[in-house]
Design goal:
Helix content is 60%, strand content 20%. The protein is an alpha+beta fold.
Length: 203
């Protein structure tokens, strides 16, 4: 009987130590999940508050403010780099900045095409944080239409969570741009892609 006492004590010690090590990790993960949820919920509430009831007319200043709230959480550089693939690495820093600015202008303009989509009721179904990356699954319901909307996010060096991709109804925004851009680059080259986007942004 005395022989087993040290073994049992050791097992209990290891079990307690494991629990103590796991709990802080779980607490940190929960804290990060809560931070991501709060960020997205506050963004959604800000948009809805500024939009007001359906049929509201917006001033140019209000539209610009809406555009900022909707888009300022998006990491355009990360998305642009993913869309350009190897071409991004071949560009100078100045050329990269030019492309990211152009790319962000197009996305920001598109974000105001149909403002009614931001009136949807959003349910947060799952938030998974793994280190400095997060995956968010939501369900957006506008009237009788339910649309799954997912977010890929990352934690930046500046201490902020940002969106690197949006998956709407199982369609990845970043992958869609990648397919479009790579197709033009393969057929006509990067300069042709840049020219196409410049014309698009100037509309």
């Amino acid at each position: 009987m005395n022989y087993f006492k040290p073994i049992i004590s050791f097992i209990l010690y290891v079990s307690v130590l494991s629990l103590l090590l796991i709990r802080p990790a779980e607490s940190l993960a929960q804290k990060n999940e809560d931070a991501v949820r709060q960020l997205l919920e506050e963004r959604d509430n800000e948009i809805k508050e500024l939009m007001g009831p359906k049929g509201t007319d917006y001033t140019q200043e209000q539209r610009a403010e809406l555009q900022d709230i909707i888009n300022n959480i998006i990491d355009y550089r990360d998305m642009a780099q993913y869309a350009l693939q190897d071409t991004y690495e071949s560009l100078s820093e100045e050329e990269r900045d030019e492309f990211v600015e152009l790319f962000s202008t197009i996305i920001r303009d598109q974000s105001l095409t149909n403002l009614d989509i931001y009136r949807a009721d959003v349910t947060y179904e799952e938030i998974t944080v793994n280190g400095d990356e997060a995956e968010v699954e939501t369900m957006a319901q506008l009237e009788n239409v339910r649309t799954p909307v997912g977010y890929q996010m990352k934690y930046t060096d500046s201490g902020e969570w940002v969106i690197t991709d949006m998956v709407i109804d199982d369609v990845s925004t970043a992958e869609s741009y990648q397919r479009q851009f790579q197709n033009i680059i393969r057929q006509k080259g990067y300069d042709s892609l840049l020219e196409t986007l410049q014309k698009r942004a100037a509309r």
